[in-house]
Amino acid sequence: MTGLLRELVELTDYHRDRCPPYDRVLRALDVPRGLPGAGLEDLPWLPVRMFKTHELRSIPDSDVFKVLTSSGTTGSGASRIYLDRDAAGAQTKRLGASLRAVLGPKRLPMLLVDTIGIITNRREFSARGAGVLGMATFGRAHTYLLDEHDEPDIAALKDFLAKHGDQPFLIFGFTFLVWQYLYEVAREHSLDLSNGILIHSGGWKKLADRAVDNAEFRARFAADTGLTRIHNYYGMIEQIGTVYLEGPSGDGLYCPDFADVIIRDPLTFEPQPIGEPGVIEVLSTLPRSYPGHALLTEDLGVLHGIDDGDWPGKRFSVLGRLPRAEARGCSDTFTTRGTAA
Amino acid sequence: MRQLFPAPAETTAERVVAELSGENPLRFGDERVIDFLGKLARRLLAPDTARAYPELAALGFFLRPGELRKVLDTAPAPDGGYRFPRGLCFHVPPANVDTMFVYSWALSALAGNPNIVRVSPRVSGAGAVLLDALAEIADSAEPAVASTQRMVSYPRDPAATGAFSAACELRVLWGGDRAINELREHRLAPNARDLTFPDRASFAVISLAGWQAASAAERRAAVEAFYADAYWFDQAACASPRAVYWIGAGEMAEARDEFNALLAEIVALRGYALEPAMAVEQRVAGYGLAADGRVRGLDFGAGVATVDLADPADPPRQWLAAGTFAHTALSNLTELAGLVRRTDQTLIQFGCTEDELAEFVAAAAGKGIDRIVPFGSALRFDPIWDGYDLLREFSRLVTVRAR
C-alpha cells in the first residue's frame, strides 16, 4: 500500500468518526470501515456539489476558524468549506510548497492581472478574489495590471517591468484576463516578459470563441512577448491548497505528492484508461477539517500518461464543465430563470 | 411581444387584449373549435410526428373530435339551465412540459372561451413541433377561432402580465410554487379568479399480493408501463412517481429485486440515455438523502438509482434526478392514507383491488391524492386534473326558474 493510499484510507475513517452525515452516506453505500483491500479507485468519493447542499465538517463549531464560500454559477447556492486553524495553516503551507517547485525558494516581484478591487471590495468578495488573495502571499512588490475600471494600466505595467523585468518575476491571473489584457497589451507595446513565470487558471471556455487553446496560448506568448515559463493550474475551493500544476512544457497537469486524480466514466464511474475522457475525481490528504479528501468534480478531463512527461506521476487535462442536468418537469418555472411576471 | 398564433407577428399586450375584447362568437362546445382541434390532431398523429414524439401522439389522440365530444358529454347543462363560456382566459403553462399548454388551452377553447396563452420562450423539441403544426393550420382556421385565440411569447414583462391579468375572467397558472406566487401579485378583476396548478408530488404503489399473483408477462408489462410513467419527462412531471410503496404483509425484498432487475433491463432495452450530468445528479440526490439520515441503503445501477427509504412516512417529494426511486414498504394502503398531504397528486398503482383503493380514498378523505391510475397512465392527461373538472372551471352556468 502506498503512503498516499494509506493516508487516504485513514482519513476516510477519520472523517467518518467526526462527520456524521458523511458516515451516513458511507453506511448507505455499505462501505466497510478500514476499507480492507481497497485501492485508490475504490475509495468512496463525494460529489463536490454536496458542499453546496449540506453542511459537511469534521470539526466542532468552536474550532471553526474560517468558512470559505464559493458561489457556483449554477444557482444552487455556495459551497461552504470549514477550516480550523490547523487546516488553514496547512493549506497555505502546501500551496506554497507546490508553487516553490516552479517559483524557486524566494518571493518574486508579482504582477497580478486583475484589479485591486477584487480583494478590497469585501461586499462582493468572490472566488476570483479569494484566488488572488491566496496567491498574493507568494510574491512581493505587488502590481495590479487593471485599474478600477478593469482597464489595463499600461504605465504601471511598464513601470513594473522597468523595475523588475530583468530578473525572474511572477505573473498571476485568470486565463481569460491574462489573454485579454496582458497578452494583447504586451504584444501591442512590444513588452519583454521573458523573465516572467506565469501561473494562471480558470479554464478555456471564454477563449474558445477566439480559437485560443492551451497550445496557441503558449505559442503566442512565447513568440510575441518572450514569455515561456507558463503554468496553468487546476484547483477548487472544495480542495483548497491542492493545486494541480502544469508541467514546464505544457504537457499536462500534475498532482502534488499528497494528491492524486482519477478520471471516471461519466455513467458507470469506473476508472477510465489513458486517453479516455471522463469526470475528474480529485484525491488529496489535505482536507482534514471537512470530508473533502475524495471528490467527484463536475469537470471533464482526460489522462494523458503516467511517468512519461516533464515530472513524475500522472498528467492530465481539464476539458471543461459537465453540462448541468436539466429536468423537464412541471415545476420547472419561469421564475427559476428570472423571467416570471 | 411575439405572437405565435394565429399568424406570426410582433404585437403588444394592449393589442392582444383589444383584439379579444369584442363580442365572443364562440359557444360552449362549438363545432368550429372541435373541427379546428381535429385538424391539429391529424397533424400530431401523422406517423413521422407520432413516432418522434409519443407525447404529441397522446395529445393528438386526446384532441380527436370523438374524444372531445366524450369530454363534452361529461359537462351537460343542468336541468333548466344553460352552460356558457366563462370568458377571456389567460394561461401561463409550465415552461418545460412542452405539451401542457395545449391541453389547458384546448379544453378552454372547447368551452368556447377566447384565450391568451403565454408560451415559454424556451419551448423546444415537442413544443416547437406543436407550434409549427398550429402555424400550418392557422390559415384554414374559421375566423371565429382565429379571432379569439392568441398564443404569445415574451420575456419577463410585468406590464404585459398585468394587462392580461386585469383583462381576463379566469387565469390558469401552472408551474412552481414560487412562479405562481409571483404571478398572483398581478391583480385580477373582481369577478375573475385563478385556477392554479402548483408543485405536486406523486407516488407509485405496488400490492405485494398483486405482484406475486401476476404472471411473469404481467409483471414485465407492469414495469414497462412504470418505465413510461417515470422516465418520460425525466421523472420531473408532477405526476411522475418518485417514491415507490410496496404494500402488503410479507417480505418485499425478492419482489423489489425482481422489479428493479426488470426496470434496469427495460431502461437498457429502450436505449434510455442517461446523461453524465444526470448520473451525477442521481448521486447528489441519493447521497444527500443519506447524509440527512433518510436512507438505509443506496444502489446505483445503469440508469436506475434505488434508494432504500428509512422511514415510509418521510418520502422525498421533491424531484431527485431522472431514474431515482425511493422504495419503502407499508402493510396496507390505509397506512399510506395517513401520510398523504394536500400537495400529493397522483398515485399510480399495480395489483391493488378496487376495494383496497376505495378504502384508501375513504381513509385519505380528500386530504391528499387527487387521482389514482394504473401503471402506464401517470402522464395521460385527464379533463379532471388536480381535482378540478376543467370544462366546468372553464364555463359558467345560467339557471332559469320561471316561477
UniProtKB/TrEMBL annotation, chain A:
Any one Gene Ontology BP term: bioluminescence
Superkingdom of this protein's organism: Bacteria
UniProt xrefs under SUPFAM superfamilies: Acetyl-CoA synthetase-like (SSF56801)
InterPro entries per UniProt: ANL_N_sf (IPR042099), LuxE (IPR007534)
Name of a matching Pfam family: LuxE
Domain Acyl-protein synthetase LuxE: residue ranges: 39-334
GO MF assignments: long-chain fatty acid--protein ligase activity
Name the UniProt record assigns to this protein: Acyl-protein synthetase LuxE
Organism for this UniProt entry: Tamaricihabitans halophyticus
TrEMBL record, chain B:
Protein name, entry field: Acyl-CoA reductase LuxC
Lineage: Bacteria, Bacillati, Actinomycetota, Actinomycetes, Pseudonocardiales
A GO MF term: acyl-CoA dehydrogenase activity
Pfam families reported for this sequence: LuxC (PF05893)
Gene Ontology BP terms: bioluminescence
Keywords: NADP
InterPro entries associated with the record: CoA_reduct_LuxC
